[in-house]
Amino acid sequence: DAGGCLVSLLATFVHFYENKNLSHNIVIVASAEEESSGKNGLNSVLKHLPELDCAIVGEPTLMQLAVAEKGLLVLDVKVKGTASHAAHQNDDNALYKSIPVMEWFKNYKFDKISDVLGPVKMTVTQINAGKQHNVVPSECDLVVDIRVTDRYTNAEILEVVKANVNAEVTPRSMHLNASSIPIAHGLVQAGIALGRTTYGSPTLSDQSVLSCQSLKLGPGETLRSHSADEFIFVNEIEEGVDLYIKILTDFFKL
Predict the structure, then answer these.
(1) Confidence category of residue 39, pLDDT binned at 50, 70, 90
(2) Which residues lie below 8 Å from residue 3, measured CB to CB, with a gap of 6+?
(3) Tell me: the pLDDT tens digits for 187-225?
(4) Are domains 3-70+178-252 and 72-171 of this chain identical in fold?
(5) Which CATH number fits domain 72-171: 3.30.750.24, 3.30.70.360, 3.40.50.2300, 3.40.50.10540?
(6) Is 75 helix (H, G, I), strand (E, B) or coil?
(7) Quick one: which of 57, 82, 188, 248 has the fewest CB in 10 Å?
């Protein structure tokens, strides 16, 4: 889904490569493992780069300006009870005890709402318990997908969950944070001047591992991502190159 963005960004990099009058140095990184934020992806490159002031992350946005992106917190939640034969009375059934836990994740509303990304969204996506019909399980395991906004850190979200849920809660990672860039930033203003609109993105990208401000921007349609026969139009790539160059030209004040 980012192949068209990669081609467009490479062409843009080549366009500016020989220019001696840039206000900033340009670094381009073509990295893998974006979907998993794996150790051999962008994470492995950042330590070799100079300090970054800002970044453009190439993702399909129809060349609109994604000025914020939700982070991701995945939790393994273990609800414990007491194992027993199903024929016997058991008031400590882990499956029944998991119901109020799931209801809490379904109904709880975080107070702070992001102007761009809206509310934090929590979804129970997996449940696993029991091995046979006549045995009450001692544990019920849940997986919870939490899409975090720029109004909270992952650590703050985890603290609230642990304070409200009667279960063992273990995060799979804490580093996939939400990100945002001010509307007043030069990159954003250069895009707005070209008629581009701003919005908040619900999907995760390499922005989550960057410590600098970043703008998600690229050719292609995000709804095609991960679909059968995924494609991009040649004219979308051409538009991407043109707009990348115009935005950076304005940003560099050339």
Answers:
(1) confident
(2) 232
(3) 999 999 999 999 999 888 888 888 899 999 999 988 787
(4) no
(5) 3.30.70.360
(6) strand
(7) 82
